């Protein structure tokens, strides 16, 4: 037997030598990896350990399921402010959750009527309409909570102004309009969502903040893994904690099985969860039936507004006690926005006028794609602005444009997570508050902040925390450089269908917009009212408003930077 084995000795020796050579080549390859690369052999050996240990970012074993509770503890003042803000956006609820469709509000069976005002309406006065909601059986509704929008407009004059809706919580709603122009005017009232649908949206916001999910790619050498990320990650799987150490803004990813937390290279939108509603709830979200459907008028929806009286007449209060106090932020006339409150909005129709206004300025734009839209508009409209190729992904940024002759610098950067962009390098994930903290500011510095759309799927506390950090950074910047000009762009209306409603409904946006206005009220910042500017215009609602609306927003922006000196 030993003799037979001896015949195969050369073969065994050859196999052993081949294995040794292969091992030495692998070791040589591993030694060529840079110091940040973990070898495959070490990863396999440490697989069990790595499931419970993190290198670099903090590691937590469990995450709370309620996003609003994440982040640093609140001070007494912060907690009181948060309670007040949440109370200010409290929404009336029907007695029955997710009532059957036939018991929910039906815009086609509801109606509004323009209330008489002594037979005439005059510029500077007020028009009031009364809405009465009915269900799909034609029965009057006995409670409030429907989400309605209203505008007064004139196609002949290309004019429009937003209305205010007052819920009397008994099925009746008052709609109030300030009358800014003389001539024809037409009332439009739209039901965005029924009160029953709003209940479902509120449940989703509180119970399913994970309905938009995110992902990150982790890579080390030849190895890569992708895991799910979010503010709220259910279960007890180990997490990578990317909470920002300066602002306390939380962010988590499920820890990769083989790689460490510090090997994350990017962030991206993962997708949208499906099957979020019951079959009964789905009936509350139907295009052309109960999502953004016009409410019909009983009688005429048109009036003729007369010029303002020369002599002042005492205006009696109507049904609504707040009627005499309502004033919009502005209105359109001949497709041009006219702001109320003292600002003379100039028309920057020529590129030379924009260049002259921005000469010597550094403009920082931070936020979501609606802020990026401003950058793109200016970059396309002003030929002297030359975009510098930073190699940034399309529609993501950061972006930079320069006009060296006129010393203009225009910059855009997206806000930190949550951000639903395609792919953002991990190194480019910056929180607005941290970016503001690094700016010297001054009379030649202009800042735009737009943060709203990507927070619609989370509890409102998450948005309050983000705005609180941004507000603190703005106030610190203005303290060290008081002449810095800061703009806040509000939320705007957008097109809705059954799917978009569950993630980006105008109701979510309205709630966030109300919070934003309250948190920055009375501060030395300029609010650009994108909400009213999209509501008042006759164009369809879009997440990214059409160019004429963006142009008017930028006219407001530029008029504050370069006020009309003829008025002074």
Automatic annotation (TrEMBL):
This is NXPE C-terminal domain-containing protein. It comes from the Eukaryota. InterPro entries: Ig_E-set (IPR014756), NXPE4_C (IPR057106), NXPH/NXPE (IPR026845). Residues 337-562 form the NXPE C-terminal domain. Signal peptide: none annotated. GO terms for biological process: nervous system development. Pfam families: Neurexophilin, NXPE4_C. Belongs to the NXPE family. It comes from Albula goreensis.
């Amino acid at each position: 037997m030993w003799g037979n084995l001896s015949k195969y000795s050369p073969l065994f020796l050859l196999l052993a030598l081949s294995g040794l050579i292969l091992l030495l080549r692998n070791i040589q390859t591993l030694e060529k990896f840079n110091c940040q690369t973990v070898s495959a052999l070490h990863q396999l050996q440490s697989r069990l350990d790595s499931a419970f240990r993190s290198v670099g970012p903090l590691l937590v074993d469990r995450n709370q399921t309620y996003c609003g509770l994440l982040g640093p503890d609140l001070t007494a003042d912060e907690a009181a402010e948060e309670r007040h803000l949440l109370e200010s956006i409290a929404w009336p609820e029907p007695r029955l959750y997710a009532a059957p469709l036939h018991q929910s509000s039906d815009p086609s069976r509801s109606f509004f009527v323009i209330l008489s005002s002594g037979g005439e309406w005059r510029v500077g006065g007020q028009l009031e309409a009364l809405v009465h909601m009915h269900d799909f059986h034609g029965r009057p509704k006995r409670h409030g909570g429907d989400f309605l929008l209203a505008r007064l407009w004139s196609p002949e004059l290309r004019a429009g102004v937003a209305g205010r809706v007052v819920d009397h919580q008994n099925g009746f709603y008052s709609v109030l309009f300030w009358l800014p122009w003389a001539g024809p005017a037409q009332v439009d009232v739209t039901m965005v969502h029924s009160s029953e649908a709003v209940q479902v949206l509120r449940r989703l916001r509180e119970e399913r903040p994970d309905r938009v999910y995110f992902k990150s790619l982790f890579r080390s050498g030849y190895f890569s893994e992708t895991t799910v990320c979010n503010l709220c990650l259910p279960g007890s799987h180990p997490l990578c904690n990317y909470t920002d150490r300066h602002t306390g803004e939380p962010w988590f990813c499920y820890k990769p099985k083989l790689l460490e937390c510090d090997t994350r290279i990017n962030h991206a939108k993962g997708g949208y969860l499906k099957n979020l509603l019951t079959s009964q709830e789905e009936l509350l979200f139907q295009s052309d039936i109960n999502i953004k459907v016009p409410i019909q008028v009983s009688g005429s929806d048109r009036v003729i507004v007369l010029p303002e009286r020369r002599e002042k007449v005492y205006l009696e209060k109507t049904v609504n006690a707040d009627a005499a106090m309502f004033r919009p932020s502005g209105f359109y006339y001949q497709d041009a926005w006219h702001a109320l409150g003292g600002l003379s909005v100039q028309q920057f129709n020529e590129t030379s006028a924009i260049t002259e206004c921005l000469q010597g300025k550094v403009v920082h734009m931070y936020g979501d794609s609606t802020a990026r839209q401003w950058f793109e508009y200016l970059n396309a409209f002003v030929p002297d602005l030359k975009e510098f190729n930073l190699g940034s992904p399309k529609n993501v940024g950061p972006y930079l444009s320069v006009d060296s002759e006129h010393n203009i610098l225009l910059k855009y950067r997206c806000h930190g997570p949550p951000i639903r962009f395609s792919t953002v390098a991990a190194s480019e994930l910056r929180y607005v508050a941290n970016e503001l903290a690094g700016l010297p500011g001054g009379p030649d510095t202009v800042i735009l902040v737009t943060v709203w759309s990507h927070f619609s799927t989370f509890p409102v506390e998450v948005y309050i925390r983000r705005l609180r950090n941004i507000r603190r950074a703005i106030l610190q910047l203005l303290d060290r450089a008081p002449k810095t000009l800061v703009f806040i762009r509000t939320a705007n209306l957008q097109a809705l269908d059954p799917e978009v409603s569950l993630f980006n409904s105008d109701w979510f946006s309205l709630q966030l917009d109300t919070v934003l206005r309250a948190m920055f009220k009375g501060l030395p910042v300029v609010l650009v009212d994108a909400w009213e500017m999209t509501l008042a215009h006759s164009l369809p609602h879009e997440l990214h408003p059409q160019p004429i609306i963006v142009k008017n927003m930028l006219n407001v922006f530029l008029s504050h930077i370069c006020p009309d000196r003829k008025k002074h």
